[in-house]
Specification:
1 helix; globular; mainly beta; eleven-stranded mixed barrel; 12 strands
Length: 226
């Protein structure tokens, strides 16, 4: 099964790479504030912004003009429901082209602590509403592996590697789309309540209609426990 999935991903990405394609390159900084509450509850507030530095197409068109794309602000509350699992729900507001859109989020997360690394599965759904577009409904699955570069766990003043792989299924106006995300990150645990991650956020979508879109975002993530 694992071999079949990997082969399917490889063939899909190969097809996407050689089909008619557009691309964009930019920055994706994010600030995360985390707060642990009592009885297994926790809160996460996230501010994220996209800045496009270049875009183009497989036909040779290149636009290097800087462009502010959007800003997201979200708040998610989570409740621990098992030894290694939790459920979560929240709200995100997006500012794009001077207009606001609103997203409601539901999540289930299961974490596996393995020998020398950690594996997390996240199944989520969300619904987005705005005044100018039809509602968008998405179902997402993300698997994340986190590997400490020193010892069996990530401790203060130590580096770690994180690899995210996510599949985002969306439906809007009866049109289905699949986006695949691959996000390798290098992290550094500065202290018990402050860490930073830097890496590439690669996304490919719209390959079913021969209009593949590649996005390459340089990701800067700050995490602060308050």
């Amino acid at each position: 099964m694992k071999k079949f999935v990997l082969t399917s991903i490889f063939l899909l990405l190969q097809y996407a790479a050689f089909s008619q394609a557009n691309y964009q390159v930019g920055l994706l900084p994010a600030l995360n504030l985390n707060k642990k509450l009592g009885n297994g509850w926790s809160l996460n507030a996230k501010l994220e912004s996209r800045q496009r530095l270049q875009r183009g197409s497989s036909e040779g068109e290149i636009d290097k003009k800087y462009n502010y794309v959007l800003t997201d602000l979200s708040m998610i509350a989570a409740k621990k429901v098992g030894l290694n699992s939790r459920i979560a729900g929240g709200y995100l507001v997006r500012l794009e082209d001077g207009l606001f859109s609103h997203r409601f989020i539901q999540q289930y997360v299961l974490v596996q602590k393995l020998s020398g690394w950690r594996l997390a599965h996240r199944l989520s759904s969300d619904q987005t509403f705005s005044e100018v577009e039809k509602p968008e409904y998405r179902i997402r699955y993300r698997i994340t592996s986190e590997i400490p570069l020193n010892g069996e766990s990530v401790d203060p003043t130590e580096f770690y590697l994180k690899l995210n792989n996510e599949y985002v299924n969306s439906l809007q106006e009866n049109e289905y789309n699949l986006e695949i995300r691959l996000i390798p990150l290098l992290g550094y645990d500065i202290s018990n309540n402050f860490k930073i991650e830097v890496g590439l956020d690669y996304r490919v979508s719209s390959f079913f209609n021969n209009n593949t879109r590649h996005s390459y975002w340089t990701s800067f993530n700050l995490f602060i426990d308050i």
